[in-house]
Write a structure and sequence with these properties.
Length: 299
């Protein structure tokens, strides 16, 4: 609970207890005057509902008018007091408090209050008296506001919940709250729909990314398999990735081809030749190339 609100409830508590002994109309009227004049009393609904105070409705007019004054202090304004005839005069403390409560009511419906409108609503004659009233209300914790004498206005930031609701105003408040609740539910529904849409788009992007990654992985595996197969066949891949051949190419058949094979195999040109040692001497191979053949002469 707001501290100012709690303070106002505590200030009214003694008068609620005293109302139990105010059995006569005069005692009840005096109790109303005391409660509305006391400092820090801004709530009056509980006192208004007590049986002895309500009994003033059937009392003579000189006492029943005090009940009307208490109702005005509870949820009325300075204008209501002046527009109602045959009400008792207010003391200086009551006058200040009713004007403060009226300022509080005006602040709940307007964020910016102009000096001319406040002077008229509060029946004040000078700008100085109006500013004194606003300053006293600020120091009492009734509202938070800033005065702008140059612009002739009062900018209200916040107000304390110190006024009682008028009879019959509760259904209107409930309707306002229901409308606010409906609008909040609509906004929440829109937010949830947007969140679902964002999540769906994120899932779709994730699915596409996973598919792309798998396609790249399959392509890399396929290329790696072809490279491995080329290595087993003795082939190679050039710098462009083109497969150049399978097993080692065989040379031509015949002496020349055999010579090439011999050279490729690394065993020398005549490693495969057997000289007949039983020819009676050393054999000398003369490399006389005639028509592409080798011939040997015995020495």
């Amino acid at each position: 609970m707001d501290p100012v609100q709690q303070k106002a409830l505590n200030a009214l508590e003694p008068y609620i207890l005293l109302s139990k002994s105010a059995t006569s109309p005069r005692a009840a009227a005096d109790l109303i005057s005391q409660a509305t004049s006391a400092a820090n009393t801004y709530f009056f609904a509980e006192l208004l509902q007590t049986p002895n105070i309500q009994s003033l409705r059937t009392a003579p007019e000189e006492y029943s008018s005090y009940l009307t004054v208490l109702e005005i202090f509870s949820y009325g304004t300075w204008t209501d007091y002046h527009s109602t005839p045959n009400l008792p005069a207010l003391s200086d403390a009551q006058t200040l408090k009713l004007r403060q409560l009226t300022l509080l009511s005006l602040s709940t419906s307007h964020d910016t209050l102009t000096y001319p409108s406040l002077l008229q609503s509060l029946s004040l004659s000078t700008q100085r008296s109006l500013e004194d009233l606003i300053i006293s209300s600020i120091y009492s914790g009734l509202l938070v506001a800033k005065l702008d004498p140059l612009a002739q206005r009062c900018d209200v930031s916040s107000v304390s919940p110190l006024r009682d609701p008028k009879p019959g105003s509760v259904p209107k408040v409930i309707a306002i709250l229901d409308d606010w609740n409906t609008r909040c539910e609509g906004v929440l529904g829109d937010i949830e729909a947007q969140v679902a849409e964002v999540k769906s788009a994120a899932r779709e992007r994730r699915r596409v990314e996973i598919g792309r990654a798998k396609a790249i992985e399959r392509a890399m595996i396929r290329e790696g398999g072809e490279s491995t197969a080329g290595d087993k066949d003795g082939g190679i891949l050039n710098s462009a990735g083109v497969y150049l051949g399978g097993k080692r190419m065989a040379g031509k058949r015949g002496p020349a081809g055999d010579a090439e094979n011999g050279m490729l195999q690394g065993g020398g040109m005549f490693d495969g030749m057997d000289l007949d040692a039983g020819m009676g001497g050393r054999g000398e191979a003369r490399n006389a190339k005639r028509g592409g053949r080798f011939s040997f002469t015995k020495r």
